[in-house]
Amino acid sequence: MRVGFIGLGSQGGPMARRIVEAGHPTTLWARRPETLAAFADTDATVAQSPAELAAASDLVCLCVVGDADVTQVVEGAEGVLSGSAGGGVIAVHSTIHPDTCREIAKIAAEKGVQVIDAPVSGGGHAAAEGRLLVMVGGETDTVERCRPVFDSYAGRVVHLGDLGAGQVAKLLNNLLFTANLATAASTFTLGRELGIDPQRLGEFLSEGTANSFALSTIAPLGGSLEILAAHASGLLRKDVGLIGDLADRASAGRGAVVTAAETTLELMESLR
């Protein structure tokens, strides 16, 4: 497939490079031209607009930050849909509200373009090493058509159901990660008060049954959330808010996991 990629940040950049290196003809676009400098040594081509990128692509991958960014890149002037031909696919790798994906899909369908949601988990290092987890929602035939591209940067691609299912799964993943940060950080605090060195405690817990991705994230920091708060609290607040909205709309109980996640966010925001 001819692939277009928009969103060349810390995670999207390595994803795009893996796609290029897998041999897929790839076109890139970025708001900031300096972002494209990292691809000067590849066979990727550069478009002057999202519309131009879409015209040269069978599959357009989006890895921008939030709902407004996705909507602007797809529907805005010189956006992806203005250059898309019938039969194309848009894959939303961004973590956004599933309803945003559904709304875009309705507009895209008028041009014969299909939309799937394919948020990813693992971060930039996992993307560079080809071991991201990809959570996909959409029609089976479309997902399978795109799978060879996803396989270039993924360790596993999981098709979870209809459009929006990938976003719900990713938001649940981020909710649990956020909640786990609170319990991990409080464990380090308690350990410190009981006279256990945080670094030694981190070494032990990381090898034991209590280990988690959240714990392994803050263990090298002595159990502190301070550095993570500076870089990730805004994104985690966004994702917890989105899953809370989905729960409220479905009249589903938020449960202990949301309470724990909100505790984490309060702790992070107090450190900023």
UniProtKB/TrEMBL annotation:
Gene Ontology MF terms in the entry: oxidoreductase activity
Domain of life: Bacteria
Keywords: NAD, Oxidoreductase
Protein's UniProt keywords contain NAD: yes
Enzyme class: oxidoreductase
Keyword Oxidoreductase listed: yes
SUPFAM superfamilies: 6-phosphogluconate dehydrogenase C-terminal domain-like, NAD(P)-binding Rossmann-fold domains
Coiled-coil regions listed: none
Domain 3-hydroxyisobutyrate dehydrogenase-like NAD-binding: residue ranges: 164-253
Record-listed E.C. numbers: 1.1.-.-
6-phosphogluconate dehydrogenase NADP-binding domain ranges (all copies): 2-161
Pfam family for this entry, one: NAD_binding_11
Family, as annotated: Belongs to the HIBADH-related family.
Name of the protein in question: NAD(P)-dependent oxidoreductase
Lineage: Bacteria, Bacillati, Actinomycetota, Actinomycetes, Mycobacteriales
